Amino acid sequence: MKVKLTEEQHKLMMEFQKRAYSFDWDDNILFMPTKVYLDKRAGKGWVPVSVSTEEFAQIRGDIGKNIRYRDNSVAETFKDFRSYESFINDTKEALRKKSFGPSFDKFKEALINTHDFSIITARGNPPSAIKDSIKLIISTILSDGEMETMENNLGGTSVDQYLSLQDYYPVTSDDFMKEFGIESSATEPEMAKTVALRSFVDRVIGVVGKIKDDPEFTGVSIGYSDDDIDNVEYVEEFIESTLKKLYPDITFLVYDTSDPNKTKKKRIIIKK
Hints:
This protein is an alpha/beta fold.
C-alpha cells in the first residue's frame, strides 16, 4: 500500500528520483541460506540433494539431464521460497553471518541517500517480507552516522513511509501474478522480471516528469543488478529493444554480478 506525503515531503522525495536502482535479492544483496531441493541421478535412480541459490543459478540449465526437480515437482523444489517467516528468518541468518552479496554496499548506499529502488526477485515470498527484511538491514547494519545521514535525507519522512513508496516484485508470488495477470516460474523468471522492471521504470519516469523543468535537474539514470547471467542478458535485450525506445533520454546501467570480484568490469551502460 502506497502512502500519501505532504507537499513538502513530496518535494524532498523528488530529489532522489534522479537516480534509481533495481536489485535482484539472492546472491546479489545477500547470500541467503535458503536451499533449493533437487534430485541427482545416481545409477538407475535418483538421490535427493539440496543446493544454494548461487549453485542453482549455475546448474539450472541442466535440469532434465543429470538433475531434476525434487520428485519432479517445482513446488517441492522451491518450497522454502514462499512464506513470510522463512524470508525473515533467512535474512536474519544472512545478516548475522554478514553474508553480504556483491551489490550490498550499493544497496546500502541507495538506502542512506534515500534513492528510489525496487527489488525484483524470482522468489515467491510476499512483498511485505522483503520490505520488513530491509527494515532489519537498516536497523542492524547502518551505523549511527549512516542512520543520521539517512534521516536528514528523508527530511521528515519516516523510514516506513520511504520504504512504502518503493517497489517489491517477488515475481513468482501470488501477489505479483495477480497484479500483472501473468504466470511466472522460479525456473524461468526472465520475462516476469522485465515486466517488473517496466513497471518500476514507468513509475520513476512519472515522478521525474514532475521535476524535469527544475534548473538543477540533470537527468536520470536507472541501474539494474543481477547475479544470474540469463537474467542479465534478457534484461539487457529488453532495455535495448523496448525501454530505450520508450525513454531515449534515460541512461540505463546493467550490472552482471555473477562474479562478485568483477562487478565493475561487467557494467553495461546503455545511453542514447
